[in-house]
Amino acid sequence: MTGLPAALVAQASTSYDAARIRAADMFWIEGRPDGRDVLVRWTAEHGSQDITPDGFSVASYVHEYGGGAWAADGDTVWFCNAADQRVYQQTAGAVIPVTPAPPRPGAIRYADLRIDPHRNLLWAVRERHEADGVFNDLVRIRVGTGAPPRTVASGWDFYSFPRPSPDGQWLAWTCWNPPQMPWDGTYLHVAEISPNGDLGAPILVAGDPDESVFQPEWSPAGVLHFVSDRDGWWNLYAWRGNDVVPVLTGETELGVAQWEFGYSTYAFLDDDRIAVIAQRGSRQSLEILEPGRVRQLELPCTSIKPYLSANGNQVALIASSPVQTPSVVVVDVDSGTGQTIAGAEPLADPRSLSQPERFVFTTRDGAEVHGLFCPPWDPADDRQGTSRANRQRPDAAGLAHPIPGQPRIRRGRDRLPRQHRLWPRLPQRTARPVGRT
User: Fold this and answer.
1) At 383, phi and psi to the nearest 5?
2) What is the pLDDT of residues 114-123, one digit of tens each?
3) Which of residues 328, 343, 358 is at a domain's end?
4) Tens digit of pLDDT for each residue in 371-385?
5) Percent of all residues in the chain with a pLDDT value above 90, rounded to a whole number
6) Given this model, what pLDDT does residue 384 score?
7) How far apart, in Å, are the Cα atoms of 70 and each of 28, 137, 143?
8) 400 and 273 co-located in one domain
9) Distance from C-alpha of 95 to C-alpha of 106, rounded to nearest angstrom
10) Are residue 143 and residue 219 in the same domain, yes or no?
């Protein structure tokens, strides 16, 4: 039993993704109960306003999971439309396509859109579904001309994170081939961008079949940063003078498994500071890397989605906790105060909800696995002062997430003994282990 009403559990809710803050406004995508994904803009003067017009839905299906489905510059927005996967340009007056119509809906898809204001371009990952297979490449899209996208990099099975430098002189990106997944082994390249938008010879910065490189990003000063697990943990590095140097290291995960495009676990603040999402075991926190020190912000959330964005001394994030639904929050890193912009729908009296307990176990190959366990309980026991040993064991349902090639574990129902043992058999691990050696 719980204080959470069954009707609330069953009803559709709004999800929040891809938040990004700028000097005067911020954007995010809301997944609405009607199935549409709508881009929302917020300003202090006007509050939240839907940007996406009726008949459109902002979503990319590259690699099926998509991500990086929108970009904005001033009052102009570019977005991937869910129905046909074309890229559209939206201004105050009209919505027009900037990529050609595919031979069939979804046959050509785009993701990870990035603006190049120096050349009036969009950089993107393109996925082509053709008769002889599915092919990925990097393209540049010259907006406002009607010209078809032009391939600038190809030959790898997968591409991600096309990121132009602030001065427009360089493009960084990652790529990989099977059987590697992006959390196993990726390659980070950079190349000079010619005046017409073509790329020079690629330069390998980092990566190999056993090194996972995540989220290359240029600092405001033009220094390329990236997350790498070269030392067994996803830590932060920089590329300076053709050398890779550590920026923030330790037994901490600063990256995440790249299931979608557009993930961001760190962002550049003012005064040479960096905000970063840090994962230590089952604990997640928002930390600020400052000259000479790292400090942790005390926030009421326990989970932060990997869509961190910053402007000046403000950080935008999507946060939640065991008693709080996901919400879009802006945090002042100097004062540590936060302002909720959207979400934070009420759940129930926090005292009526099961609180998670942290646990650790060791796998057969010696890796540590961290988790959170929410014990089933009846809040009436607390009200009546019933001891744990004498409480009635409540019903519990378990469902393990299946993985490709593994038999599906069916939903089951059983009585849990007092020690709350984990009764489903766990499938073989395919995710990247924490603290890999």
Assistant:
1) -65, -35
2) 999 999 999 9
3) 343
4) 888 777 666 666 555
5) 72
6) 59
7) 9, 18, 14
8) no
9) 19
10) yes
Same domain, residue pair 227 and 356: no
DSSP 361-420: EE-TTS-EEEEEE-----HHHHHHT--GGGSPPPEEEE-PPP-TTSPPPPPEEEEPPTT-
CA distance 160 to 296: 30
293 and 309 together in one domain: yes
Beta bridge partners of 339: 330
The predicted-structure confidence for 324-370, as pLDDT tens digits, reads as follows: 889 999 999 999 999 999 997 767 677 777 778 888 989 898 888 88
Q: For residue 138, tell me if it sits in a domain.
A: yes
Euclidean distance between CA atoms 9 and 200, whole angstroms: 53
Domain that holds residue 213: 14-343
State how far the Cα of 164 lies from the Cα of 118, in Å rounded to an integer: 10
47: its two tokens: 């509050």
With respect to residue 231, please indicate whether it lies within any of the assigned structural domains: yes
Domain end among 343, 375, 407: 343
Q: How many CB atoms lie within 10 A of CB 345?
A: 12
- One-letter amino acid of 157: D
Tell me: do 87 and 233 sit in the same domain.
yes
Same-domain check for residues 301 and 407:
no
Number of domains in the chain: 2
Residue 436 lies in a domain: no
Is residue 162 a part of any domain in this protein? yes
Q: What is the pLDDT of residue 425?
A: 33
In sequence order, the 6+-apart residues with CB closer than 8 A to the CB of 4 are 347, 348, 352, 353
229 Cβ neighbours under 8 A, 6+ residues apart? 211, 212, 235, 255, 432, 436
pTM over 0.85: yes
